[in-house]
């Protein structure tokens, strides 16, 4: 049975995903769910120390609640990043201890930090001393072939002693050698029971689960064991699954909104982005799953993906896409592009 609805801010969230969960993606997701917590792509402390800070941190006010995920290991650098997160108005700063990519390992952060729990604890303490917003950690259940429960239990215990109260646990090991990041999301076996046991052993902590959860039924089942569920690629590829989350999992009134209304709001947002110098294609790529599984959805997606249409205003492309989805002959001022809407 699903537990009674609570005001736990981490009850549902969309995972930080590199190259995907940028501010345009998060704006789109917020049109589908008001309550689900959204995370940025991982931003490294080096990027905030030496790069274009506004480019990395700017976001739309409509995105709240939104969290910044940091990648790094040096306490002073993490504290600096956390301060910027708070100054920019983020609701949380999250430390990445779960990414298995070799590039991240070369920076001595991500999943390899699980082998150094005291380093993580030092970073968490530095961030907590620097800011008042929540400091959280996302991590795996183990590294390489280390599958003992004691490994992840001691990691959580050490980091919790430094003041971290919220842990999001990807229920797979991170294999640091021999697997790509994509394979690391699929090959190491899911062991949900490890995360459930963490919640039993640390009842005062907020424990959230990540990995392999794709349906509302699976979300409801997990919420019977732990405090929150983080959904990743399923939310990106099939975003309409989020449209019912506020009502089912937060007890909110249903959002009476159709897919075509969400698309219209995104088209208006694209027009604003174009006026500010951002090509609409940088935005549209995030909503390509909006009509997945619906009649005409593939034809609609083909139109929005057609590079030949990038010079047209977003409203004209939307008209072509709707015509294609409904099976009507596409008519526009650029009639030469009409074949792009066919199968």
From TrEMBL:
FMN binds at residues 16-18, 69, 138, 170, 210-212, 232-233. Residues 14-313 form the DUS-like FMN-binding domain. CDD domains: DUS_like_FMN. InterPro entries: Aldolase_TIM, DUS-like_FMN-bd, DUS_fam, DusA, tRNA_hU_synthase_CS. It holds the Pfam family Dus. The active site is at residue 99. The record marks 96, 182, 185, 298, 301 as: Interacts with tRNA. GO terms for molecular function: flavin adenine dinucleotide binding; FMN binding; tRNA binding; tRNA-dihydrouridine20 synthase activity; tRNA-dihydrouridine20a synthase activity. Its cofactor is FMN. Keywords: Flavoprotein, FMN, NADP, Nucleotide-binding, Oxidoreductase, RNA-binding, tRNA processing, tRNA-binding. Its EC number is 1.3.1.91. It catalyses: 5,6-dihydrouridine(20) in tRNA + NAD(+) = uridine(20) in tRNA + NADH + H(+); 5,6-dihydrouridine(20a) in tRNA + NAD(+) = uridine(20a) in tRNA + NADH + H(+); 5,6-dihydrouridine(20a) in tRNA + NADP(+) = uridine(20a) in tRNA + NADPH + H(+); 5,6-dihydrouridine(20) in tRNA + NADP(+) = uridine(20) in tRNA + NADPH + H(+). Belongs to the dus family. Belongs to the Dus family. DusA subfamily. NCBIfam families: PRK11815.1 (NF008774), yjbN (TIGR00742). HAMAP family: DusA_subfam (MF_02041). Catalyzes the synthesis of 5,6-dihydrouridine (D), a modified base found in the D-loop of most tRNAs, via the reduction of the C5-C6 double bond in target uridines. Specifically modifies U20 and U20a in tRNAs. This is tRNA-dihydrouridine(20/20a) synthase. The gene is dusA.
